[in-house]
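Hi all, long-time lurker, first post. I run a small reading group and we've been trying to get comfortable going from sequence to structure in the token notation. Rather than ask abstract questions, I figured I'd post a concrete chain and ask someone more experienced to write out its structure so we can walk through it together at our next meeting. Sequence below, copied exactly:
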Amino acid sequence: MDDAVTVTDLVVDRGPRRVLPGLTCAVPAGRVTGLLGPSGSGKSTLLRAVVGVQQVRSGRVTVLGEPAGSPALRSRVGYVTQAPSVYEDLTVRENARYFAALFGRGSAAADAALADVGLRDAAGQLVRNLSGGQRGRVSLACALVGEPELLVLDEPTVGLDPVLRVELWDRFAALAAGGTTLVVSSHVMDEAGRCDRLLLLREGELLSDSTPAQLRAESGTDDLEEAFLRLVRARQQEVAA
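-- Answer (accepted) --
Happy to help. Here is the structure in token form:
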């Protein structure tokens, strides 16, 4: 399978606002694809459409050969939302082991997932007593424990210190090297260079679908944030003309 996800002419309205006006893109299998853009650009809406929890007006989203949201995908797709989605009245370890059991995996798999996200020493703490960044890592561990074929991560590094951010991106790269497909959203452009593929969104429009190297070459700058700004300016000039 060349593409793990294909999105065709996707239209999504949120109330009176059209968030995605007919988006078409693809996510290559076994790679880290970065979904980048400012807040309000449609990143979370697109991710929700990929995992099948977003009501859409029209268009088609295919995930691992199945329509998005199909029951057959439940054990094959992992999803980490911006807000931590774990049980605050359980410990870190209890959360991980609960989700491991749902996937038919044992305590060793849960403990390994906690170690992968740097929470081994916090395993006995109640989730309600953790920082926001730590809670996000608990959610990530609970998604990793199922060893999904596709891992969808919505702003997973928000609130993390620089050292842990680097460690997590190294972990994402290792997962992709092992065959997992990752879609990682961020509004921090310095994370773009760690992706194999980039989808740059602004106001629901796909400004670029390229690799970091291609984006640098096409924009004439090595600074990916400046490259994004140049794309925005070029698009504004097109619209004005």
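A couple of things your group might point at:
The CA atoms of residues 20 and 43 lie 9 Å apart.
Strands lie at 3-14, 17-28, 32-36, 58-63, 66-67, 77-80, 150-154, 181-186, 197-202, 205-210.
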